[in-house]
Amino acid sequence: MINKKSREEIKLMRMAGNIVALVHKEMANVIEPGISTLELDKIAYDIIKKNKAIPTFLGYCGYPNSICASVNEEVVHGIPSADRILKEGDIVSIDVGATFRGLVGDGAWTYPVGKISDECAHLMEITKNALFAGIKQMIPENKLENVSAAIEDVALEGKCGIVRQYGGHGVGREMHEEPFLFNYRTNSNVIIKKNCAIAIEPMLNLGCDDVHTLSDGWTVITNDKKPSAHFEHTVIASEDGPLIMTELM
Predict the structure, then answer these.
(1) What are the pLDDT digits (tens) for 71-88?
(2) Given CB 3.0 to 4.6 Å as the disulfide criterion, which of 21, 32, 153, 227 pairs with 248?
(3) What's the pLDDT band for 3 if we cut at 50, 70, 90?
(4) Torsion of CA 206, 72, 162, 131, to 10 degrees
């Protein structure tokens, strides 16, 4: 069942999304060669708590940290560690969730660490473009399939692999709600309802589509060990068009 959000729920999701955006603003300032992903986790935790919110990821299904920090070939769910020191040329995807008065904001961004390769810059640009192409389709009574198709078209034009085991999802009172959003066409007949909220999150690779999970039970990496990028916004399908919840107010 797809849950439509009330005016009050949308207001609270906007507050939660703003906290997510505050974390990402600080990530852009502090990510540089020499910082550990555990330091990034602590910075995010402090910002979320300072703004009277709860780190949504912390303890979720046993997850041990407040953010996911996925480096290079790590696609999603990378666990922050004091031993994971970012170096020049890396790319790192930071996924953040904040729960404010019971409502969730969820957003991810991929950051360059110092000077990166042209190939990684291309991957990041295409993945970000795919996100915003999908967002444009978040219109009431449009087919959810059109969001998926827009993402797939940008990925294919950019010659990037599409992660198929993971995708976007409804969000609100829970971090994961219906519907699931594929990042490629599936012939789905799901209709986008007015004031539904979906976390749109393309995950694209420089190489193949295929991924697998490491022995830690969380970290997902590309099978060919080529870099992956991840961009995500929480979006409301309003009567005035798509509303991005995870931008700064």
Answers:
(1) 999 999 999 999 999 999
(2) 21
(3) confident
(4) -110
Region 186-211 average pLDDT: 97
Find, among 155, 157, 178, 156, the residue nearest to 168 by Cα: 178
Burial label for 234, CB within 10 Å (0-12, 13-18, 19+), is buried
Separation in Å, CA 34 to CA 83, 87, 161: 11, 6, 29
Cβ-proximal residues to 236 (8 Å cutoff; 6+ apart), any chain: 5, 10, 13, 138, 195, 196, 197, 242, 243, 245
Which uninterrupted H or E stretch holds 113? Answer: none
Phi–psi pair at 215, nearest 5 degrees: -70, -15
Question: What single letter denotes the amino acid at residue 70?
Answer: S
CA terminus-to-terminus distance, the chain = 30
Per-residue pLDDT tens digits for 59-74:
999 999 999 999 999 9
Asked if residue 78 lies in contact with residue 213, where contact means CB atoms within 8 angstroms, the answer is no
Which domains can be identified in the chain, with CATH numbers? 7-244 (3.90.230.10)
